[in-house]
Each structure stands twice: as structure tokens, then as C-alpha cells.
Design the sequence.
């Protein structure tokens, strides 16, 4: 075979040509360009003025805010509450350590050439929750106990979302496999579980978990509200996850199942080594979508009296000592959520690209 | 409460009697009065066949004759409803452990290759030896490379199936099945999905394999292959075995009118 030396012709693209092609190709595209351009130019200036140039960053209380722009020193002053809730100041190093470990586990995932980054990720999914389980509540190994009623803010949001995400994926996989099982009892139970939990709004689940459940449990078997909320969120999320994963399982051609059977792999190895790796890869966008939705849905714990990051901000903006800081507070919350959701989304896109072996059977 | 016990004894009896018979009847695959239905549709009707170790059988017949279904019953990708199938002295029943034991000894090559697209060629070949046979990875890889050499594509070992041509994929599929060191190989129309220029490379590998003494059961339309390597050709139509003969007799002197008609059609051009 002789390598052809012919290259495809290069397309010369000057800025003027590019603009004519992309911005002013027809009269209505030209009109849209002008209108959108006008809106951008007129809105960017005031937004920048409010958020940066006229904003107040330094000071100790509301009197240091001029009122001309954003009062960011409100966020600065109450940041401790927004991040840790009522977690005692002198014990906050425990939470900080968890934040650090979280970063250690997941920041390498964004760096293509980081050595052994797989193991950092595995630590994040196994070791990290175990450490957190002992470190955050304390009470063992001489660590002072901190009741879960004192947890709050961003830390609580992350705990709810992290545990919810981590636990719902394996449960969802089992439910999806159960729903496609050939055994009628297992299939029936999975269908009932999924249909019941998926048909209930999360608010109802949380409300049931916090108010109704204690009424049914025997005396003395009452466990913490946070734990009940976590279990509720996880089971609810698992039902969604199961349906997303089932979509992936159904997309795997029958030949793959048969080839695995013909090799004598048996059910669990067939699923674990052949079917699930392909099915999960197919539904990464759906899984991530569900994760992001859950991350934001954790704000609903507000109605059962848990103060997540939105809850802490909301309770502070009504503080009479600070006036007219609601916008700043909500912008801050939005930013917190955006950072994490965007991170999850970027990571999933990385993962999709990495796992793409360029094939369709 | 006594039931499980009785069942246990019965199963072992079947096995021991089967083992006892091996002396008299060396069939590695025995099919006795086998029937299969899809719903009410009677696909396989009273099939009887004994295949000896090392025999090479070609099954042919018009489409819809049940030949693929039959071959898929032998490693129980399809279930039969009546009669007996005994493979390597194990009767195929609902007992899933028996079936997995049988499947380990029976390699299968599919029409559409069915390679695992998320694994490299080498990983495809090593998967079952490592996880089912519990062979150490190094050893499994070395043995897989030997088989890939045998099917003449060792240089593609680290590519993904999606990067290979159809003929190459099918040869990988053959190597993957051979890596389990099976006693029997089943081929389900292995060349039907291939472009004409790739059929030969796959057939060459199969002919080489036939020369090595492997017990082979091939569903194929490649009559040249049947003439070259088969010990017996079986003609199926309408779910029945219509005729069964050595290739020379089968092609030059078919007995049944249905066989004659079929041969006339496929050998016409």
C-alpha cells in the first residue's frame, strides 16, 4: 500500500468571511446578531458594575455596604455559617479535612496524565465515605461527638448529594437487573419498588421520612432525622437510576449476552464484565443528568428542618442586621451549585471520551 | 421433603449411566428424540444424532429449516422441550451449573461475531480463561497470543474489535472460543455476514482447525468447505433431519427429493 501524499484542500477563513458565514448569512440572521449584540452590550456593563466595580468586599457589617453595588462582604461575614451550619468552630477542621480529601480524590480525575488517578477515584468512592462516617459525627476514637442537628450549609448539601449519588448507583443497578430478571418474584419486587418510589414526589418522601416514619417505628428505634432523610433520598433516587440503567441494558444487542453465555461466564460475570460496562457507558449522560438533578433536589430537605446551603442563606438574608442582601445570597448559592454541577458534567464528558472505543456492534 | 434427595440421585444416575456407556458409545454429543417449539410452532421435530469425538459435521438446509436453532440447542442458548441432549456426558437440563460446565467445553462462533466491543482483541480472548478457568493473566495472555497467531492476526491484539474488518473480527471470535480449549466447536453460519473477499480467510482458519482433530459442528452454506473437511453432511428441512451422508455421497448421489432440489438450487450457478 502506498501512502497518498495528497492533502485535503485548506479552507482559508478570514475574520470577515467567518462573520459573513456565521453571523450575517441571511437578513434574519443579521437582524438577530444585531439585536443580541445590543442586549449583550447594554446588560454586561450594569452587571459588571453591580457585581465588581460598585461592589463592597471589605468591612464588618451592613453599614460598610454603600448600597451602590453588591454587598459581597455579607457572604464573607457569614461564610462560616453557609459552609458549616452550626458545626462548632473548634471542630471544623474535621469538615475541612473531608473537603481536602474530596479534592484529593476528584481533582486528579480532571488531569489526563495524573499517575494512578484511578486509585484516587476508588478511594473517593470507598475510603472517603468511611472516613467521613467516623470523622464528621465523631463520638469514637476520642473525637467529640457533633449531633447531626448541628450540621448544615454546603457541608450538609455535599453529604446528602454524595451519599445519595454513591448509594443509589449500585442499588439502581441491582434494581435494573432485577427488573429484567427471568425470576418472576425478583422481577415483580423490582417493578413494584421502582414504580412506587418513582411515582412519589421527593418532598413527600422527605416528609414521610421525617414525620410519618417515627410514628410507625417501635419506641426507642428512632434514628436521626438526617439518616432518615438520607435513606429516603437514596431509595427515591435508586428508582430513577434503575430506569436509566435499564435503558442501557436494553440497548445491548442480544448477541453480547449470547456470546457471554457461550463462553460459560455465568450470570454475574456476564453482567459485570460484558453487559454492564457497555450499558453504563451508553447511559452516562442519563446517569449524570440524574446525579445533577439529585444534587439540586437536596435543597428540599429545608422543609423537614435541615439547613443545607440554600437553607442557611435563606435564613440569613432575612436577618435584620443585614438589609437587601437577598440577591447576593442567592447568587452565591447559585454559584455553589453551578460549580459542582458543572464539575460533574465536565467529568462525565471526559469519561465518555475516554471510554469511547470507536465501535458499534 | 424427600423430593430434593430423589432428584439428586436421579441426576447422578443419569451421569453415571452416561459415563458407563461411553465405552460402548463414544458419542461426545448425543441427541435423542429432541423436539423444540417456539410457542405453538414446532421448530425441531424428533432429531436424533450422535457425533463422535473428532468428527466434523456440516449442517445445511434452506433458511428457516431450524439448523441454527438446532446448533444453539447444543450449548443451550435455546432450550429444547422434549428428548435428550447429552454433551460430553452431561445431560442438558434446567440445572444452570451443568449448563455452564457444558458451555466451558463447547466453543461457539456466531454469524455476527459478537465480540465484546469495549475490550481489546487480547482482552476478548483472555476474559473467560481468566474469570472462568481462573488461569493467571500472564499465562492466559500468552496462550491467547498463540491462538491469535494461529488465526494469523497477532499484530491486531491490542486493537478494539471496531477497528478490524469483518473477516478479522470473525477470526478473533474463533480464537476467543479456542482460548477456552473447548472439546467441541460450534459454528453458526460463520461466513454469512462477511464480504466475499473475506470468506476465504475465515474458511482457511476453519479448515486448519478441522485438520487438528477438533470436533466441529458447522451450520454453513459453504459447500466447498463441506466437501473439503466434513466427515458427514446433514441436510435439514422443516425442522427435521432429512438426509445424512458423507460429503461424496451427499453431493453426488443425494437420496431424498428435498435434498436433490436444494442442491440443484444452490449449485445452479
Sequence:
Amino acid at each position: 500500500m502506498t501512502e497518498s501524499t495528497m492533502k485535503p484542500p485548506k479552507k482559508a477563513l478570514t475574520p470577515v468571511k467567518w462573520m459573513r458565514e456565521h453571523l450575517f448569512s441571511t437578513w434574519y440572521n443579521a437582524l438577530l446578531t444585531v439585536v443580541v449584540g445590543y442586549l449583550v452590550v447594554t446588560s454586561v456593563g450594569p452587571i459588571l458594575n453591580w457585581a465588581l466595580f460598585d461592589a463592597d468586599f471589605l468591612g464588618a457589617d451592613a453599614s460598610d455596604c454603600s448600597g451602590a453595588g453588591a454587598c459581597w462582604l455579607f457572604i464573607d461575614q457569614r461564610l462560616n455559617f453557609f459552609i458549616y451550619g452550626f458545626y462548632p468552630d473548634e471542630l471544623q477542621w474535621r469538615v475541612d479535612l473531608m473537603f481536602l480529601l474530596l479534592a484529593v480524590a476528584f481533582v486528579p480525575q480532571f488531569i489526563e496524565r495524573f499517575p494512578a488517578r484511578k486509585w484516587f477515584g476508588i478511594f473517593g468512592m470507598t475510603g472517603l465515605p468511611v472516613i467521613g462516617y467516623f470523622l464528621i459525627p465523631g463520638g469514637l476514637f476520642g473525637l467529640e461527638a457533633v449531633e447531626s442537628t448541628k450540621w448544615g450549609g454546603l457541608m450538609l448539601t455535599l453529604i446528602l448529594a454524595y451519599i445519595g449519588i454513591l448509594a443509589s448507583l449500585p442499588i439502581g443497578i441491582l434494581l435494573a437487573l432485577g427488573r429484567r430478571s427471568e425470576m418472576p418474584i425478583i422481577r415483580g419486587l423490582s417493578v413494584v419498588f421502582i414504580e412506587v418510589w418513582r411515582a412519589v414526589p421527593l418532598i413527600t418522601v422527605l416528609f414521610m421520612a421525617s414525620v410519618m416514619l417515627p410514628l410507625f417505628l417501635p419506641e426507642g428505634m428512632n434514628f436521626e432525622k438526617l439518616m432518615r432523610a438520607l435513606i429516603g433520598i437514596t431509595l427515591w433516587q435508586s428508582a430513577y437510576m434503575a430506569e436509566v440503567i435499564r435503558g442501557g441494558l436494553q440497548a445491548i444487542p442480544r448477541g453480547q449476552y449470547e456470546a457471554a453465555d457461550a463462553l460459560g461466564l455465568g450470570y454475574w460475570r456476564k453482567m459485570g464484565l460484558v453487559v454492564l460496562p457497555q450499558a453504563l457507558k451508553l447511559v452516562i449522560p442519563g446517569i449524570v443528568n440524574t446525579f445533577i438533578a439529585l444534587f439540586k433536589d437536596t435543597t428540599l430537605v429545608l422543609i423537614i428542618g435541615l439547613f443545607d446551603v440554600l437553607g442557611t442563606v435563606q435564613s440569613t438574608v432575612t436577618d435584620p442586621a443585614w438589609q437587601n442582601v437577598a440577591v447576593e445570597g442567592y447568587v452565591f448559592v447559585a454559584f455553589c451549585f453551578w460549580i459542582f454541577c458543572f464539575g460533574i458534567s465536565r467529568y462525565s464528558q471526559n469519561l465518555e471520551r475516554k471510554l469511547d472505543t470507536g465501535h458499534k456492534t | 421433603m424427600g423430593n430434593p434427595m430423589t432428584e439428586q440421585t436421579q441426576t447422578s444416575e443419569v451421569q453415571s449411566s452416561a459415563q458407563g456407556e461411553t465405552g460402548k458409545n463414544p458419542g461426545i454429543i448425543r441427541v435423542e428424540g429432541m423436539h423444540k417449539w417456539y410457542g405453538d410452532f414446532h421448530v425441531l421435530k424428533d432429531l436424533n444424532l450422535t457425533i463422535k469425538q473428532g468428527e466434523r459435521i456440516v449442517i445445511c438446509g434452506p433458511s428457516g429449516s431450524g439448523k441454527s436453532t438446532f446448533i444453539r440447542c447444543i450449548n443451550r442458548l435455546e432450550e429444547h422441550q422434549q428428548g435428550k441432549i447429552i454433551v460430553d456426558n452431561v445431560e442438558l437440563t434446567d440445572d444452570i451449573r451443568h449448563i455452564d460446565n457444558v458451555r466451558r467445553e463447547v466453543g461457539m462462533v456466531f454469524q455476527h461475531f459478537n465480540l465484546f466491543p469495549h475490550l481489546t482483541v487480547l482482552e476478548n480472548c483472555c476474559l473467560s480463561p481468566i474469570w472462568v478457568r481462573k488461569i493467571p493473566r500472564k499465562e492466559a495472555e500468552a496462550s491467547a497470543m498463540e491462538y491469535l497467531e494461529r488465526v494469523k492476526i497477532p499484530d491486531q491484539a491490542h486493537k478494539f474489535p471496531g477497528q478490524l474488518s469483518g473477516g478479522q473480527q470473525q477470526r478473533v471470535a474463533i480464537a476467543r472460543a479456542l482460548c477456552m480449549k473447548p472439546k467441541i466447536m460450534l459454528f453458526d453460519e460463520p461466513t454469512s455476514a462477511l464480504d466475499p473477499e473475506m470468506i476465504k480467510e475465515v474458511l482457511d482458519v476453519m479448515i486448519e482447525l478441522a485438520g487438528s482433530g477438533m470436533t466441529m459442528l458447522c451450520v454453513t452454506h459453504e459447500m466447498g468447505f463441506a466437501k473439503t473437511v466434513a466427515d458427514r453432511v446433514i441436510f435439514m428441512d422443516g425442522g427435521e433431519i432429512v438426509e445424512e451422508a458423507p460429503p461424496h455421497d451427499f453431493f453426488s448421489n443425494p437420496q431424498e427429493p428435498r435434498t436433490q432440489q436444494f442442491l440443484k438450487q444452490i449449485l445452479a450457478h
In short: Chain A has two domains: 15-53, 62-87+146-355. The interface with chain B takes residues 253, 255-256, 258-266, 269, 273-274, 277-278, 281, 355, 357-361 of chain A (CB under 8 Å). The two ends of chain A are 28 Å apart (CA to CA). The mean pLDDT of chain A is 83.
